Amino acid sequence: MIGQGTWNMERDGRAEAVRAIRAGLDAGMTLVDTAEMYGAGAVEEIVGEAITGRRDEVFLVTKVLPENASRRGAVTACEESLRRLRTDQIDLYLLHWPSAHPLDDTIIAFEELKQRGLIRWWGLSNFDAEALDRARALAGPRGIAADQVLYHPQQRAIEHEVLPWCDRHEVALMAYSPFGSGDFPLPGSRGGKVLAAIAKTHGKTVHQIALAFLIRKPIVFAIPKAATVAHVAENAAAAEIVLTVVEIKRLEAAFPLGHPPPVLPTL
Ligand code: NAP
After folding, report:
1. Per residue in 179-220, pLDDT tens?
2. Domain count, the chain
3. Distance of CA 256 from the midpoint of ligand 1 (Å)
């Protein structure tokens, strides 16, 4: 339920990033999420180095940029990602966000990639429930494997429609930026205090409690990014935490859901 994000890892120093991803694999965080966009291909190369010799342990996720998601463009982009990732197969290939190219062209390309064995499954990212309905109408009931969306304690918008949609249609929900991309609840804030109190009870950190909160529903996977080995170990260990119903209710109250936003948030 907890994997490894890699956005901006090209800024962390190659050796450190490779070490962190490998430490994550050692600790059982075998889902690795990347994208052709990250570092303009540089992060896929880092991931390729990190998983060399360990490909069988990894559930590898990467994403095609919307501007490349045409019938032919998606196929070419996938082949280039495979080269940078030093592998012959991607486990899950996502459309990074809705594209100006017709979605049926993207889906035809994804299905071709699947038939050729270059990807095992495909999915979407930053799709709201309406867009998911349209995609499902084109792809059929077994087409979409996952939707990757913004989800952290302070941003629970997907709980209104996207999460129930994914639950209903047995589509995995991947929670990106689970720590708010660095904008984590401040220690003195209402939410920060509740996280700290629950963390103390469990002998865990506030970040671990945040992850446990996000993955409380079985269809949710979280993909924290960590280039620090200590952070990696901490994130992996969060998978063992079982929050009580009362703790979940306290967290839900401390991080209010709010009204459904007009547009699905991405930041
Ligand atoms: P994030 O995971 O919310 O936060 C990353 C930050 O948290 C880093 O500064 C990291 O530090 C720190 N951190 C990690 N573990 C920690 C811990 N246990 N304790 C304290 N700090 C910790 O940010 P994100 O990169 O935005 O999101 C995660 C992943 O989601 C991305 O890397 C990417 O794979 C994916 N994503 C997808 C989309 C999309 O549109 N589909 C958009 C955004 C992100 P260190 O690195 O120094 O360890």
Report:
1. 999 899 999 999 999 999 999 999 999 999 999 999 999 999
2. 1
3. 22
